[in-house]
Design brief:
By secondary structure, this protein is an alpha/beta fold. Helices cover about 30% and strands about 25% of the residues. The chain folds into 3 domains: about 180 residues, 3-Layer(aba) Sandwich (Rossmann fold), CATH 3.40.50; about 170 residues, ANL, N-terminal domain (Rossmann fold, 3-Layer(aba) Sandwich), CATH 3.40.50.12780; about 100 residues, ANL, C-terminal domain (GMP Synthetase, Chain A, domain 3, 2-Layer Sandwich), CATH 3.30.300.
């Protein structure tokens, strides 16, 4: 069964309708127009067809943020294949597992990459430069896009693994078009915008911000192949003048710490944050420094969308926002019963474009994809007057003195102290008991650990209930994180 359409062609045509000569991607000193993006994507589809790639076949994409990623991703979909975007910083064993798990027959990457070690018998390896395989332009651009088949995966991502082993999250082709019609209405992007995302294209947040949302409205996208630090971000803002920036709380924290008054004129009108809860202290600090609000939101790979978000001119510090158009949200207890207003609960969402089941993981599918079209997000939230505040992941919630502790609330309070640069809260085994421990990256020149611990404990006791105050404070030089900037609390627990 198929719907007769191809989502990649739809999004390419939508962007080109604003002008085929307009830049779709800005990359270094070069640019790729919407017309050329369409042509190169069709040529890549022809290239795949020449390699006997059939509808539904999985194609691993292990590519940095260059035009080649967009060309290969869209070209694979035009061919009816399923692009599988993978993190570029994994090891050969990880790629071998993921290639086997996805059942992929083709690996597209760059020369010398560890992913080439995953090419096994029956699989092919293809190397790209920044614009795709070197011989792609020799293939015809008159490829007839293959219609989407509902029973086959349209594209696939792997969860970032903030809580352990990554899971394959397949989506239908048409799910690529849902974000622009839902979350996109809150953001209000247009063909006049220039977008930059610090999150990489191989993650859902980055793919949304650098492909699904901007291409649908004809906006231009700045691509940066490396991992942007705060200095890189300000350089990009000054060089390209983006009007919309998508980042994560960790990066906003670093930007605040190196901010200088002259940088204010380069800050985009739209600043968005996702990936983890945005502490209210960062929201207020950024607003004070830049005059711009950070719009916080909650999304997931399973939704391939941001389903709760703040809107422009109507953001609330400390709140993730309200459900975006097209989505419903409810909070339930561990038995599935709705919790009273103002009470913490497990977040369930319902709307278009949700993953129907994990790849090769029926056990996880049963736990996450529920009856009635509801999806268990794994987030713990509290709702007040229709606004949702994020309290952490259910796997990260702690118990102290028989009472639940939200690590997010403790971290947000601790971040208000000037001697704290970053922090994360997790349990630590001491004397056979699990106690609440704060792992802190001290601010430069803050002093030694023992007196700081006393200062921090006194500070928290003045603003938090006793059971939420950490029993231990451990100073560390850095926190374990995914490449999206999410703190991996499970690694702290293992320590």
């Amino acid at each position: 069964m198929h719907d007769g359409k191809n989502a990649a062609l739809d999004i390419l045509d939508a962007g080109a309708a604003f002008g085929a000569e307009r830049p779709a991607y800005l990359f270094g000193d070069a640019s790729l127009s919407y017309g050329d993006l369409r042509k190169r994507s069709l040529q890549f589809a022809s290239f795949l067809a020449s390699r006997s790639i059939r509808p539904g076949d999985r194609v691993l994409l292990v590519l940095p943020d260059t035009p080649a990623f967009a060309i290969a991703f869209l070209g694979s979909m035009l061919a009816g294949a399923c692009p599988v975007a993978l993190n570029t910083s994994l090891g050969t064993e990880d790629y071998a597992f993921l290639r086997s798990d996805a059942g992929a027959g083709l690996v597209v990457t760059v020369a010398g990459h560890a992913a080439l070690g995953a090419v096994a018998e029956g699989a092919q390896g293809v190397c790209c430069d920044g614009w795709g395989p070197s011989d792609t332009e020799s293939f015809p651009a008159d490829f007839a896009p293959r219609p989407a088949e509902d029973a086959l995966p349209g594209f696939m991502l792997y969860s970032s693994g903030s809580t352990g082993r990554p899971k394959g999250v397949p989506h239908r082709q048409q799910d690529l078009l849902v974000p622009a019609a839902t979350w996109g209405t809150v953001l209000g992007l247009s063909c006049q915008d220039v977008v930059f995302s610090s999150s990489k294209c191989f993650f859902a947040y980055g793919l949304l911000a650098s492909l699904a949302l901007p291409l649908a409205v004809g906006a231009s996208v700045v691509l940066f192949p490396g991992k942007p630090g705060p200095g890189d971000v300000f350089d990009i803002l000054a060089r390209y003048g983006p009007t919309a920036f998508f980042g994560v709380p960790t990066l906003y924290n670093m930007l605040i710490r190196i901010f200088e008054p002259d940088m204010r004129r380069h800050v985009p009108e739209l600043c968005f944050s996702a990936g983890e809860a945005l502490p209210a202290v960062l929201h207020k600090a950024w607003l004070g420094l830049t005059g711009r609000e950070i719009l916080d939101g909650i999304g997931s790979t399973e939704a391939f969308n941001v389903f709760i978000a703040n809107g422009k001119g109507a953001s609330r510090a400390g709140f993730a926002g309200r459900p975006v158009p097209g989505f419903e949200a409810r909070l339930v207890d561990d038995h599935g019963d709705e919790v009273p207003p103002g009470t913490e609960g497990n977040l369930l969402i319902r709307g278009q474009g949700l993953c129907r089941g994990y790849w090769n993981r029926p056990d996880k599918t049963r736990d996450t994809m529920l009856e009635g079209g509801w999806l268990r997000t794994g987030d713990v939230c509290v709702a007040r007057d229709g606004w949702f505040a994020h309290r952490g992941r259910s796997d990260d919630m702690l118990k102290s003195g028989g009472q639940w502790v939200s690590p997010v609330m403790v971290e947000e309070a601790l971040l208000r102290h000037p001697a704290v640069a970053e922090c994360a809260v997790a349990t630590r085994r001491v004397g056979g008991l699990d106690v609440v421990c704060a792992y802190v990256v001290p601010a430069p020149g803050a002093g030694s650990e023992e007196p700081l611990a006393l200062v921090w404990r006194k500070f928290l006791r003045a603003c938090l209930p006793e059971h939420m105050c950490p029993a231990l404070f451990v100073c560390v030089s850095e926190l374990p994180k995914t490449t999206t900037g999410k703190v991996q609390r499970f690694k702290l627990r293992q320590e």
